[in-house]
Amino acid sequence: MLMLVIAGILAGATADSTPSARLAALADLVWQHQTERDGAARLRAGLAVVHLPDMSEAGARADAAFWRKVGAALARMPVRGLSADEAVTRDMLAWQVARAAEEDRFYWYPSMVSPYAASLGPVASVFGSLPVATALDRARYLELAREYGDIYGALRAKLAGQVRRHLVLTRPDLDLAIPLWKSRQVAGRSTSLWVSAARLAALPEADRTDFERTLESLLDGPVRRGLDSLVAYMAGPYYAAAPAKVGQWQYPFGKDYYRYLVRLHTTLSISPEEVFRVGEQQLDSLFKELDRVRQEVGFKGTVQEFKESLRKEPRYFVATPEAVGARLDGYAATMETRIDSLFGSRPKAPYGTQRLDPALEPNMTYGYYDPPTPQRPKGIYFFNGSKLEDRNLAMAEGLSYHELVPGHHFQISSVRENDSLSRYRREQGFTAYIEGWGDYASMLGTDAGLYRDPYSRAGRLTMEMMTGTRLVLDVGMNYYGWSLEKAREYMKVHTLETERQIATETLRYSADIPGQALAYRMGSLAFRRIREKAKRALGDKWDVRKFHHLVLLSGAMPLDVLERRVDRFVAAELAGH
């Protein structure tokens, strides 16, 4: 159906064939396509979830065909007559069309079973919000559970295809991934797909019993068999074919794939070599700034010795997971008192912190932010609360600003609450924008008059060193062929991470989600550069709150598109419009 509508747009056969109307129709079709199997997005939009993601090769080819049609429609669409905001939408679509062509070429490369990249966690979480009140609700739930079992088969087929093409995930990462998948091999009533008694309490007993019997049969039958087959293949033939070395450089056309990942995750036309140089320059500058903090506190050793002393600094450690959450919440509360100096508005959605599922903690260095949903209208940062004797919280202040206020929660909730923005624009998730904003947000603590204590500033600098180090390590391992040992030693010298954290982080960069870690620092540097460019141009007309309003409420977008959006804003301000 979507393909037929695109064909209509191609022919200009809409009821209103103005460029604006055709662009809006195309953007809405893209939104429908993106949310067709995105359960979380459909629930946010108040739509029924009727299918899970199609992770098969056929699904990927169908997706590529869809984007080719979008590209053809976009190419024939007039540009003249579009507003500044519509030009942003057009530029975003054009960027996605170009990336889709590259993604189609590299379908077999990405891992889908490694700890960070494994895509079933977000899919499974949707089940907790699915309605079960009516017979139709329950029939849909059972059908989605069947599809969940099919996903295991699609993943196994992809692993087999990777073996044939010599694109197998590295053994060090599989050593973390396989136990994680094995931990999911539990009885049906213990899986995340099981429906609690509380959710079924209002049903007649016969309906409840029938639903539970059918669901348990599915979960202990085809779903469990699909998972068992996947795990057996991972631990058997797949592991046997896995390389011991890390990095994309070792695969057929691996460097070409990595160059694509750099463009994808930074949304910039930049090379791995350039990213590497930026990382080295950043670290040199940050160590000089840390040296000034060393002198301020009167530390007598070298800057490297000062950094090592911070690794054991008592003020950076707490004894309980509850204390971790309290520290993160406290920093957010302090930032709330300064937020009006930087922003003219704020989102309505509440936020907070919660400990990660302990089963996930061995494989995740930090944690993740989960936005509000209709069923849980509160944004949550899930933090890693394990091994606290080794978990240095020097970066906790910056992490709180990054994840909550004015970072991910502030940004994502602001745009989702902006009803004047199209559904397409509210739902885009460009990594460089989102993680770049998070990294930029952590630096706004300085603008807000925070980080005044020298040890607070030292914590901020170590966080910046972390994101700067990622630029060097990600490129080093994936493009220049660095070994894990070399990367881990480099990370030990340049960050405060423990051996355990360094082990998981380096595998994240080299094997799990290569290129993704570049988005943080490259994104925040772009935000700062675009901001300073606008500030110089506007002079006395500069207002940081207007800048942030424009950037946040326009939604996530590629960074070069953002720069053009800000340039148009500056021109309008100077013209007095």
Quick overview:
The chain contains 24 helices and three strands.
Output the helix-strand order.
Answer: HHHHHHHHHHHHHHEEEHHHHHHHHHH
Uncertain stretches: none
Distance between the termini: 42 Å
Class per helix and strand makeup: mainly alpha
Arithmetic mean of pLDDT? 93
Q: Strand content of the residues, in percent?
A: under 5%
Give the radius of gyration: 24 Å
The number of E-state strands comes to 3
Number of helical elements: 24
> Major sheet: order of its strands?
1-3-2
C-alpha geometry: globular
Mind summarizing the main beta sheet? 3 strands, mixed
**Tally of individual domains:** 3
- Multimer state: single chain
Helix content bin: 55-70%
Structural key phrases:
577 residues, mainly alpha, three-stranded mixed beta sheet, 2% strand
Give an overview in words:
The chain is an all-alpha fold. The chain has three domains: 2-35 and 56-105, no CATH class; 120-244, no CATH class; 260-523, no CATH class. It contains 24 helices and three strands. Strands 1-3-2 form a three-stranded mixed beta sheet. A hairpin with an 8-residue loop joins strand 2 and strand 3 (379-383). The radius of gyration is 24 Å and the shape is globular.
Which helices and strands appear, and what pairs or packs with what?
Blueprint: H1 2-10, H2 19-35, H3 39-44, H4 57-75, H5 84-105, H6 120-127, H7 135-164, H8 171-182, H9 197-200, H10 205-240, H11 254-266, H12 272-297, H13 303-311, H14 321-336, E1 351-355, E2 367-370, E3 379-383, H15 396-403, H16 408-416, H17 423-426, H18 431-447, H19 454-478, H20 484-494, H21 499-512, H22 518-538, H23 544-553, H24 559-574
Parallel strand pairs: 1-3
Antiparallel strand pairs: 2-3
